[in-house]
Specification:
The strands form three sheets. Strands 1, 2, 3, 4 and 5 form a five-stranded mixed beta sheet that branches. This protein has about 190 residues and is mainly β. About 10% of the residues lie in helices and about 35% in strands. The termini are far apart.
Length: about 190
């Protein structure tokens, strides 16, 4: 009948908003903190802009997506902060994200783009494109159950499972009825 049945808070991430449990909603919200500019092919151009770019100085905005849960009244009732759970020593060095950071003057560290909530497992699946990883998160504790992603040679995590799958820079995560995961593999590292 055209009536608004729910209107949530403003968020800056266009990727995901899903209804979960009883009248609760999960979405991704961009947040940033200052982090280092790591050493790499991009270091000198950053130094030419006046940054120290020594791999240690906290001087450049790193953007990640927090998971937020709100109730139907718009009150935040749970959140998950990737800065508290992921190591900033894990970052892309192969797919050009630091070159993009040079142009955008911010580093899209996680570029998380999709969520899936499994009520029976009480788990959230998070797709983080720039880290080429799928993370399974226990709800409500927020503990990481596992991270699926590339081999450690890519610098995107040391304890990843299913490293032989070879997906990278993926979008979308969905769990099928048989428990399999469906994702769109951009294949940037292929």
């Amino acid at each position: 009948n055209g009536n608004i049945i729910w209107e949530g808070p403003y968020w800056q991430n266009k990727h995901e908003l899903i209804g979960v449990l009883d009248d609760k909603y999960l979405f991704l919200k961009n947040e940033n903190i200052l982090g280092p500019i790591p050493l790499g092919e991009w270091t000198v151009p950053f130094q030419n802009l006046g940054y120290i770019a020594d791999g240690e100085t906290l001087e450049f905005p790193w953007v990640a997506q927090y998971i937020r849960m709100f109730n139907k009244d718009g009150d935040e009732i749970w959140n998950w902060n990737p800065f508290n759970h992921f190591s900033m020593e894990d970052y892309d060095t192969f797919a050009g994200t630091w070159e993009s950071a040079l142009l955008n003057l911010k580093y899209g560290w996680t570029h998380s783009n999709s969520l899936w909530f499994n009520e029976s497992e009480s788990a959230i699946y998070l797709s983080s494109r720039s880290l080429s990883r799928i993370t399974k998160i226990d709800y409500p504790s927020g503990n990481i159950i596992w991270i699926m992603g590339p081999d450690k040679k890519f610098g995107l995590g040391m304890e990843n499972i299913c490293t032989d799958l070879g997906f990278s820079m993926q979008h979308h995560i969905q769990q099928l009825d048989n428990g399999n995961l469906l994702l769109f593999d951009n294949g940037n590292l292929s």
